[in-house]
Backbone:
């Protein structure tokens, strides 16, 4: 007896369009190497941090500069996120119905790792605020740190899987190109 | 329990002149997954292994094995250093019979 799951559902027209977009070959050469992928991830982390700082700054100080930093960071952040999605082939954006078994397993692995890291970060944050409470800091003093930590944890929860997935992508050999016939590898390649 | 599954997918795919993309579409997988399997970086599920074998009209054990495969040339021509192969084909004559060719 078999049970139907979301993964068994037929892809919609939107799924097919998104799958095609995420697998667009035009951006592939821009993140073909591990070094390039790492640089994009680092740039994305930095841009995200600048954007968050701008957001908290706009909340904390009555100055236009934090908002300007936020807007500029956003302009850089959007295409960088596109690169991350392109290098992971939409691993975290596509619905399970258009992913194959390896991709679904990889998505599970990525989420599990991100969950572990985020759990430690939240525990550390909680511990920090507990220590601050022991030091008799007032809630008013903790307003900005609370806002910043809340935003950072939320952002980490949302983006850490994407960063981990991007860092786990492996180089494709030339003969992996779509539609290209390749030479035979040696017989009996052992599994990792 | 061993997690090593050996395969000769790349050899068979090249022999049949099937691209990764074509095979991936035929078996409902991403083309990268075919590459991962060929490079031994991913062990396919039984379901996917059977679909790949069915696509090539081969038994699944012809493509996937828990033991390393002998090179196909050894299996066909019996020229490898495998002791069993040597026992089965210790002479040129046996090798010739294996290939089904006649020599003077």
Residues:
């Amino acid at each position: 007896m078999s049970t139907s799951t979301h993964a068994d559902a037929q892809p919609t027209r939107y799924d097919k369009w998104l799958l095609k977009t995420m697998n667009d070959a035009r951006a592939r050469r821009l993140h073909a190497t591990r070094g390039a992928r790492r640089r994009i991830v680092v740039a994305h982390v930095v841009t995200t941090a600048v954007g968050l700082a701008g957001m908290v700054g706009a909340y904390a100080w009555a100055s236009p500069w934090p908002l300007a930093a936020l807007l500029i960071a956003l302009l850089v952040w959007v295409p960088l996120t596109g690169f991350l999605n392109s290098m992971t082939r939409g691993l975290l954006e596509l619905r399970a119905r258009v992913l194959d078994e390896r991709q679904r397993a990889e998505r599970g692995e990525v989420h599990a790792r991100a969950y572990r890291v985020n759990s430690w970060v939240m525990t550390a944050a909680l511990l920090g605020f507990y220590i601050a409470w022991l030091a008799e800091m007032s809630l008013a003093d903790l307003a900005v740190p609370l806002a910043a930590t809340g935003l950072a944890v939320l952002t980490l929860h949302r983006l850490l899987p994407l960063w981990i997935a991007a860092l786990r992508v492996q180089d494709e050999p030339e003969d992996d190109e779509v539609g290209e016939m390749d030479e035979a590898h040696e017989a009996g390649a052992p599994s990792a | 329990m061993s997690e090593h599954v050996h395969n000769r997918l790349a050899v068979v795919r090249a022999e049949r002149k099937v691209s990764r993309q074509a095979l991936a579409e035929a078996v409902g997988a991403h083309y990268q997954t075919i590459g991962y399997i060929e490079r031994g970086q991913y062990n396919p599920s039984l379901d996917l292994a059977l679909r790949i074998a069915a696509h090539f009209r081969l038994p699944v054990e012809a493509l996937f094995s828990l033991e390393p495969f002998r090179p196909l040339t050894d299996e066909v021509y019996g020229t490898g250093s495998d002791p069993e192969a040597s026992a089965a084909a210790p002479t040129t004559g046996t090798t010739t019979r294996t290939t089904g060719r006649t020599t003077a």
In short: Chain B touches chain A at residues 3-8, 10-11, 13-15, 17, 19-22, 28-33, 35-36, 38-45, 47-48, 65, 68-72 (CB under 8 Å). Residues 85-104 of chain B have pLDDT under 50 and may be disordered. Helices of chain B lie at 9-15, 20-27, 31-38, 46-55, 60-63, 72-77, 83-88, 92-99.
